[in-house]
């Protein structure tokens, strides 16, 4: 189910929904600007009503094609008090972008998180930012998938909420070349040590491809190691479900391994070239997994999306 419940046994990492990355989006808007969205906490607020105060949420950007972060935006949240929480946003480059710590220039400091239906945008120089509750844009017939493609016509995500991090940046902030790679990460500080507990970019990978016993290792890993580590076991999955031959399996996997969302900004965003809020990623993954035998789940995008910042729809009533 997209990247929801990415821990072992279809649970949130460490059993904590606040650490559960659900979706990543990257697309262009007018004015030579790029929107980066990281959603966490599936079925919020049932799974928790604030971002984790001991976590570092990050959006990493590879600007030179080496599968390593060259620019990183980090989001660190305060401990909630009396229903209030704030967030500080930093931008790191170079070696500081490759570490998982929050580092670099502070773009926003102590910005309030929005737990209501409002969506005030906060601006600082060329940056626009929002953090808070929004409607989950993910759409899929999950019951039909579980029932071995006996479609129900019910969109699982139609009434769900997430906690969203939305950052709009000038294109120049992401390097001089139009081709970039983007992935999200959630790290948690425990006993003085920061550990990656979730990461990813492409939707619906770990649920379909990773065995339960390797999901924690995957979430802690680096995209640069993905091809060497996961090429063989993931090729076996495609051979089993989609009757791929070895060459076709490897060719197909190159679109999602390393697990970095590639985005050529000289072309319109449409998954897997970036990802917009209306891209039918569930059908794309079903087509890939089954070798085209199951091309769609017949569920369309949500109709509550906004044409303006923060682009995600207002949260549903709890």
Q: Can you walk me through this structure?
A:
This protein has 318 residues and is α+β, with helices and mostly antiparallel strands. It has one domain. 17% of the residues lie in helices and 30% in strands. Strands 3, 4, 5, 6, 10, 11 and 12 form a seven-stranded antiparallel beta sheet that branches. A five-stranded antiparallel beta sheet has the order 1-2-9-8-7, with no helix packed on it. A hairpin with a 3-residue loop joins strand 1 and strand 2. Helix 5 packs across helix 6. The longest helix is centred in the C-terminal third of the chain and has 17 residues. It is globular. It starts with 20 loop residues before the first strand and ends in a 28-residue tail after the last helix.
Detail the topology: elements first, then pairings.
Layout: E1 21-29, E2 33-40, E3 55-62, E4 71-77, E5 86-93, H1 95-98, E6 105-112, E7 122-124, E8 127-135, H2 142-146, E9 161-170, E10 179-190, E11 193-200, H3 206-209, H4 215-220, H5 226-242, H6 246-253, E12 261-264, H7 281-290
Antiparallel strand pairs: 1-2, 2-9, 3-4, 3-10, 4-5, 5-6, 7-8, 8-9, 10-11, 10-12
Helix pairs in contact: 5-6
């Amino acid at each position: 189910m997209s990247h929801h419940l990415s821990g072992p046994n279809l649970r949130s990492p460490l059993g904590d929904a606040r650490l559960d990355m659900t979706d990543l989006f990257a697309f262009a808007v007018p004015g030579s600007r790029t929107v980066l969205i990281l959603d966490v906490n599936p079925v919020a607020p049932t799974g928790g009503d604030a971002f984790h105060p001991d976590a570092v949420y990050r959006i990493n950007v590879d600007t030179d094609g080496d599968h390593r972060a060259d620019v990183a935006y980090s989001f660190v949240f305060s401990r909630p008090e009396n229903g209030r929480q704030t967030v500080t946003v930093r931008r790191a480059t170079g070696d500081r972008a490759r570490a998982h710590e929050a580092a670099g220039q502070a773009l926003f400091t102590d910005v309030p998180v929005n737990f209501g239906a409002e969506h005030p945008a906060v601006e600082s120089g060329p940056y626009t930012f929002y953090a808070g509750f929004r409607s989950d844009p993910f759409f899929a017939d999950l019951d039909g998938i579980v029932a071995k493609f006996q479609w129900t016509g019910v969109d699982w995500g139609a009434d769900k909420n997430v906690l969203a991090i939305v950052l709009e940046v000038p294109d120049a902030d992401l390097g001089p070349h139009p081709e970039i790679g983007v992935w999200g990460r959630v790290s948690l500080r425990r006993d003085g040590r920061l550990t990656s507990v979730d990461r990813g970019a492409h939707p619906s990978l770990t649920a379909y491809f990773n065995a339960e016993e390797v999901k924690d290792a995957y979430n802690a890993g680096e995209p640069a190691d993905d091809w060497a580590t996961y090429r063989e076991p993931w090729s076996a999955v495609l051979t089993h479900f989609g009757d791929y031959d070895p060459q076709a399996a490897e060719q197909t996997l190159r679109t999602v391994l390393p697990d970095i969302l590639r985005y050529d900004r000289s072309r319109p965003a449409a998954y897997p070239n970036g990802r917009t809020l209306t891209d039918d990623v569930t059908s794309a993954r079903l087509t890939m997994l089954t070798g085209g035998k199951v091309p769609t789940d017949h569920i369309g995008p949500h109709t509550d999306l906004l044409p303006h910042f923060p682009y995600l729809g207002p949260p549903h009533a709890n």
